[in-house]
């Protein structure tokens, strides 16, 4: 993703969205890399690095933003796994959603670490690491602060906003809650210690399941050398990507809100147009009845 340029160039997933149910699409490329670190572990930088190394498609949360029906699938997956709600998803559905991607990282895939390891036994695993305290501070400077705003809304207001923009808010409000209160428990980000314990436990589980010859424990400060050696790629001549995720998150959130307002405004105008048409039709009918 370009770090400079127009909003369309920097955040294409917000301007060129699709609406495709990908659950049963056939896989088009082999899944080669699972980056199993939680959000806010440098996933945008790693995503840019993998794309620069030639991997065809890296599934990140922004892929769901670009195709909002994915959010419906992930909400169902998380609700079933963590809360026992809804219908159990099938492995072919997961493979369909990820079928055009050779790598995946960040949430929501990070919440399915054991499932992904089992589903793609030949894929190499990169465990993106960060100090738990620094990780949680980063969460609360970005994703967490938006979740605080969302959780402060009454259920009635959330329903109104979801009606206002069913294309995006109607899907991502439920997903946001599933991402917080599924993996991190009933108190979500309001319980920092539990969140950090979950973070550490998930990383330990990956280390327990995946042998060392198939796993790379990686931190951004290490740069190209270990990741290229692990993946069998030549080291690029360009510096390793370092994307300021917090500032980009704020810009992206502002654009999401603006686009939701535009979509919702159009929806309200259409509704008003229908109401005007109905009232006008009823009025004409009443006038005809009176004159007859």
Please, could you describe this protein's structure?
There is one protein chain. This protein is mainly alpha-helical and 292 residues long. It has 13 helices and five strands. The protein has helices at residues 7-10, 43-52, 61-66, 69-83, 91-97, 113-119, 132-141, 143-152, 155-164, 169-181, 192-209, 224-231, 245-291, and strands spanning 33-35, 58-59, 103-104, 124-128, 215-218. α4 (69-83) packs parallel to α10 (169-181), α7 (132-141) packs across α11 and α9 packs across α10 (169-181). The longest helix has 47 residues, at 245-291.
Largest sheet: 5 strands, parallel
* Mean of residue pLDDT values: 88
How many beta-strand runs? Answer: 5
Quickly give the structural class.
mainly alpha
Q: Biggest sheet: strands side by side, in what order? A: 2-3-1-4-5
How would you sum up the global shape?
A: elongated
Strand content: 5-15%
Distance between the termini: 68 Å
Residue share in helix: 55-70%
* Secondary structure tally, helices: 13
Q: What is the N-to-C order of secondary-structure elements (H for helix, E for strand)? A: HEHEHHHEHEHHHHHEHH
Low-confidence segments, ≥5 residues, pLDDT <50?
Answer: none
Cα radius of gyration in angstroms: 22 Å
Main features:
about 290 residues, mainly alpha, 13 helices, 5 strands
């Amino acid at each position: 993703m370009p770090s400079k340029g127009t909003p369309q160039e920097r955040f294409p997933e917000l301007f060129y969205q699709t609406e495709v149910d990908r659950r049963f699409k056939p896989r088009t490329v082999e899944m080669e890399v699972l980056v199993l670190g939680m959000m806010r572990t440098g996933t945008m930088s790693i995503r840019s690095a993998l794309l620069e190394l030639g991997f065809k498609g890296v599934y990140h949360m922004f892929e769901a933003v670009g195709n909002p029906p994915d959010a419906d699938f992930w909400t169902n997956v998380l609700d079933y796994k963590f809360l026992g709600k809804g219908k159990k998803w099938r492995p072919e559905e997961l493979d369909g959603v990820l079928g055009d991607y050779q790598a995946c990282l960040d949430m929501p895939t990070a919440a399915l670490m054991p499932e992904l390891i089992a589903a793609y036994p030949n894929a190499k695993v990169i465990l993106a690491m960060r100090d738990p305290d620094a990780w949680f501070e980063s969460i609360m400077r970005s994703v967490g602060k938006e979740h605080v705003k969302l959780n402060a809304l009454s259920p009635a207001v959330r329903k109104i906003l979801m009606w206002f923009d069913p294309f995006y808010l109607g899907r991502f409000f439920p997903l946001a809650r599933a991402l917080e209160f599924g993996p991190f428990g009933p108190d979500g980000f309001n319980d920092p210690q539990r969140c950090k314990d979950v973070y550490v436990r998930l990383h330990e589980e990956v280390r327990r399941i995946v042998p060392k010859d198939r796993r790379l424990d990686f931190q951004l400060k290490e740069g190209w050398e270990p990741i290229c050696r692990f993946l069998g790629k030549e080291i690029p001549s360009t510096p390793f990507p370092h994307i300021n995720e917090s500032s980009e998150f704020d810009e992206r959130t502002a654009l999401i809100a603006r686009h939701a307002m535009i979509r919702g405004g159009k929806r309200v105008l259409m509704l008003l147009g229908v109401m005007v048409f109905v009232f006008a039709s009823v009025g004409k009918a009443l006038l005809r009845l009176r004159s007859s």
